[in-house]
Amino acid sequence: MLKVDNVSFSYRTKKVLDNVSIEIEDGEIIGLVGENGAGKTTFLNILATLLKPRKGTITYNDMKYKSKKSAIRKQIGYVPQDIALWEDLTVMENMLFFEKLSWVKKSEKELKDILLDMQLDRFDSKVKELSGGMKRKLNLAISLIHDPSLLLLDEPTVGIDLKSKIEINDILDYMSEEENMTVIYTSHDMDEITQLCDRTIVFGQDPFYRELLEREGMPIS
Amino acid sequence: MKNMIDIRLMLSKKRLIGLFVWLTVPTLLTMGIFYIFNDVTDDFSVPVGIANDSDEEEVESIIQEIGDNNLINVRMIEADEAGRLVEQHELDSTFVFDEQFYDNLENLRRTNMIESHYSNRSLAYGAIKESVGAVVQERYGLYYAKNMINQVEEENDAEQSDLETVDTLINDLIDRFNLLEYEYSYYGDITPVSDHEDMNIFLIWSIVTFFVTLFIFELIVSERRQKVMQRLAFTRYNMTKYFLYQVSILTILLVVSDLIAWFVFEFFYEQSISILTVLSVRLMMILFAYVLAVLIKNVYTYLLVSLFVIIAIIIFTFVLNPLFVTMDLGYLNHLNPLYQFINEEITVYWSVGLLVIIALFWRVRHA
Q1: Residue A44 belongs to a domain with what CATH number?
Q2: With a CB-CB cutoff of 8 Å, which residues 253-312 of chain B face chain A?
Q3: Structural domains in chain A (count)
Q4: Which residues of B touch A143 (CB under 8 A)?
Q5: What is residue A150's three-state secondary structure?
Q6: Tens-digit pLDDT profile for residues B222-232
Q7: Given a cut of 90, is residue B147 above it in pLDDT?
Q8: What angle do CA B279, B281, B287 make, to 5 degrees?
Q9: Is residue A106 within 8 angstroms of chain B, CB to CB?
Q10: Domain annotation for chain B: domains and CATH numbers
Q11: B276 Cβ neighbours under 8 A, 6+ residues apart
Q12: What pLDDT does B165 receive?
């Protein structure tokens, strides 16, 4: 379980998060929504241990973020908004690169299985030759190499075709349902949010997102 | 470490040949520069001034013979301008055959036969001195032999010399042929160059290899900028650890290349320096490149700064360092990171300074 208790964060004088509290059960899919600059990515980065909150506490499976950062990172799969891949390497080389850096050792077959789960079978194609959707899938696949239990994604489906978007959403749904993985992700796509997420957290002052989600009958935390 | 080597090979796949080419550049380029300075420059003649205050044909013939040497471009000058022309660096060196020269030669007075002038920029002085000396010595030998034969003939008239006396005379001649003496003079506080020496091959190598080290470390700067690096937080290696491993791999490659260079220069060029001195300058170069790579995030800025560093080192080494010595500001020479190495000392000051910078950098970053 992920517990966020009264977390606040500010960039110099600009307050971005103010006393955010939430409890997230294992296997839940949580959508973070809100206008640009509202604090979605900041919150995601705090959950990813990449930023320290100015105030408040976070625990994951009873491990405190403050004291167990390294142990928590082993549980986190982080998918950055950028395509964080080696463009000149092949799909498989990218997987091997991060497998060699990973805490968990995986065989080539296991790595291929992760890619096949993503419906990505162009193992020997260079990343720069792939479509945007395939790159996004590989971006996600790399985050799963070390078998994380908490998956944090920053706009994982931005700028890709509908088919790839559906495929990625199916994977996230599968991870949550079958692997009991907790999935937290940011998105501006409200259809995606309402279809995929169990709950949402709305950031910012704009009532637009809250009203829209309420109309759709989406639980908001 | 094996994983890191695999990763390095994976990332350098396309640049692997380039990397190995760069690693051989210091040795090969140094050999090339050394060849140009020490062999090709031999094809150029050295401007030398000769003043002839004697009216004798014999002296003119000696000067003619000196001028026959392809190495020497003889310019006839007046005796009173011999010093000034060297001082103004118009001529490499000057030689004065005064009016007493012929008289000295004929009467076998060896001392103070020729007056020569040179400065610390008379790079070819050693070779020119030998060439001029050889011609004069040969002529002196002839006069000496003639004198001796005359003496033997006179003695024969009185009493026949035995073989032992002739043998002694010949040995005496041989000994004396090698004892021609000069009076050398030079100007001001300038330290005279005693002999022309080969260019220091390790000096050239250190500059070239410094440049190559900075250039290879561009790899670190460009990789650090990659978006993919943000994933390192979720691996066994954080950014610092990852790059420390990568720097270690590059260091090993560079040290191997250094040892090959050292071996080549030591055994094929017979120029000697201790391995410890080479390794210490390598450590300094790695630390220098690391500091630059950490402080500069933009690849082009990094390359530009690297180029400025090398130009500054060249200026320091060849212009400012000799100047600082003459100005009694020798301590400023340590501004040159290669100064201790050039003086065949273990590079300490710059390495310690760079380590302090790295420590401060970490402290500030963690604060």
Answers
A1: 3.40.50.300
A2: none
A3: 1
A4: 231, 234
A5: strand
A6: 888 888 888 88
A7: no
A8: 105
A9: no
A10: 2-38+200-366 (no CATH), 44-185 (3.40.1710)
A11: B346
A12: 61
